Description:
11 helices, single chain, alpha+beta
Amino acid sequence: KIFHPGPPPNQALPYSWDRRMNTTWADWNNPNEPRCPQNTSWCSVEDTERFQDTQIASTALELLTNVTRDERPFFLAVGFRKPHVQWRAPTRAFDAYPPWNVSLASRPKGPQHSVDVAFHVPVHEIDVFTDWRACGGSQALTPAHNYPSECQQAWRRGYYAAVTFVDEQLGVVLDGLTARNRERDTVVVFFGDHGWHLGDQGEWMKMTNYENAVRVPLLVRVPWAPESAGRVVSAPVELVDLFPTLAGLAGVDVSYTSRESQPLDGRDLSPLFFGGAGDDTHVARSVYPRCVANASAAWKHNDCNDTPRRRFSHMGYSTRDERWRFTAWYEWSHLRLAPKGSPVAVELYDHAGDTGTCDGAGGSALEDYEWANVAGDHASVVEAQLARLERLFGIDAPIVDLY
């Protein structure tokens, strides 16, 4: 999605759009297409004309026709809904993944030496679906216990089918770009707004600071930089880099932001497409809150969805450099709306050798690098990582409490 329904709270949506397919959160969360029978999380169908993503692709083609005739330059943002649940996809997409050929996560339990507050059970997202409830519902998921294999296979298959369907729609848009003779002068960027757990680390869905939740695909095609085709950059980059990068590639001066408000947080990555080297020292940042209901079992009932910040109990701050993912969990000050004191828990995961690619069996290579919290084995690394994290996030650790 390009713009999350609901926010911002002042309902500034009319100022952001000329034309929108859905105007409210309810329209987006329950799009105008049939639901799966018995409200399961996945189902295969034949007719996809009423799919929201089909309509989005068609609308994108209409807009491409307009801009190629009337506007130069142009910017077009196309946000597909799937693979957000429900995983309702055409039968042909499911046929590409026979049930017996769907692998399971290689590490289906929480990491060794993990911290309770890091684990998340998406209660509301799980228990709304009948097939998840039939497999035990949210009560069956713990850091040490995942769902039965047949349930995991069905859900992973549904996710794969939904991704395949969206991939088809992406092809529709790109073919439309080619048909309108704009593929040679148009930058194309493909990315996701977050990752997704599919049973790895015992997790499902997205509400964590683990790699599979906060790392996303990012592909950029710059037709006037043919030497960049196929290049893979291993240095950390962030989605906040997209605006200054696109501006740089288009020759747009964005220095006005410094004069009118403040400098952009992101970096211009355009030199990477013309032989420039990636910044191996850069650190990517992520955050995710927790609303712990029971301190003795912090992993259970810690969901913060639609919860005001003043009611958070903890905040997890995470950094990722070329080797380490480091996460520090702090108690949250309801008054300052900021972390307080020193971390109550830390996590350190070693990504040495991680290329971000999938292995030959189809499983995520990321599972091989976050299967054990090694903070206890690297005291000096933790000390350095924590100092940098608190500096980057502006955390004033000496302030302990304001209750």
